[in-house]
Design goal:
Layout: H1 2-37, H2 41-45, H3 47-58, H4 62-104, H5 109-131
Length: 132
């Protein structure tokens, strides 16, 4: 009888750990999808995703979908044009800020700063190419 009771307790303990693992995994997935993943800008600015949300939430007809798709495309084109016009000013401000930082750094820090800038620029260009 003692062996059976010990086996049952062991089984229940293993089962409890398994259930707790599932619960923790579910909570982790929920937190990731609602807090981390949803906060990413590309999820919001994906044109296909935007139309899917509009269609679902507003119950759009096919004609409305076509009209709104045209409006969104025109708006994105205008945003791109505004971005092109503003890019030189952003680049100038970025360059000036980097020059000011270089003046503060020691000779040992400057090469590390240049490596850091290369990584940051690569990440920025990657994000921009994904977003456009």
């Amino acid at each position: 009888m003692d062996a059976n009771q010990g086996n049952r307790k062991a089984f229940l303990l293993v089962f409890l750990v398994f259930v707790l693992g599932i619960a923790l995994g579910s909570v982790g997935t929920y937190v990731f999808t609602t807090r981390v993943h949803a906060a990413r800008p590309q999820a919001v600015h994906n044109p296909a995703n935007t139309m899917a949300i509009f269609t679902r939430d507003l119950n759009l007809s096919l004609e409305q979908q076509k009209q709104i798709e045209t409006i969104l495309n025109d708006t994105r084109a205008r945003y791109a044009e505004i971005h092109k016009q503003a890019d030189p000013e952003y680049e100038k401000a970025r360059h000036e800020g980097r020059e000011r930082i270089r003046q503060v750094l020691t000779p040992d820090q400057k090469p590390k700063f240049e490596d850091l800038l290369q990584r940051l620029d690569a990440e920025r260009l990657k994000r921009e190419s994904e977003g456009r």
